[in-house]
Amino acid sequence: MIKLIALLAVVMSASSVYAADDCAARAAEKKLAGAAKTSFMKKCEADAMGPEATACEATAKEKKLAGAAKNSFMKKCVADAQAAK
User: Fold this and answer.
1) Hey, what's the signal peptide range on this chain (predicted)?
2) How would residue 69 be classed by pLDDT, with cut points 50, 70 and 90?
3) Which of 46, 54, 65, 82 could disulfide-pair with 70, CB 3.0 to 4.6 Å?
4) pLDDT digit string (tens) for 18-29?
């Protein structure tokens, strides 16, 4: 079970890296900069992660989490949501 969770975490981090690269490429194509690029990247990466991440992001915001606590919460929340499928 622990190996499965570790594998899931690796896959999720790899997919988020791919999503970030894809979003960065799309932002470059659109020639975005500054606040527009930041906003676009945030939305693009959230869309790429799926509905689980959106729900977890909302919960993290309600709990007023930030930094490492938010990152840890998001990883666990998304993993739990995907495991429940």
Assistant:
1) 1-19
2) very high
3) 65
4) 456 788 889 999
| Closest by CA position to 7, among listed 70, 85, 79 | 79
Closest by CA position to 28, among listed 18, 19, 37 = 37
Residues near 67 by Cβ (< 8 Å), separated by ≥ 6?
none
What is the b/e burial string over 40-65, where b = at least 16 CB atoms within 10 angstroms of the residue's CB?
Answer: bbeebbeeebeebbeebbeebeeeeb
Neighbouring residues of 37: CB distance < 8 A, sequence distance ≥ 6: 27
DSSP annotation of 30 reads: T
Domain boundaries, the chain: 1-48, 50-85
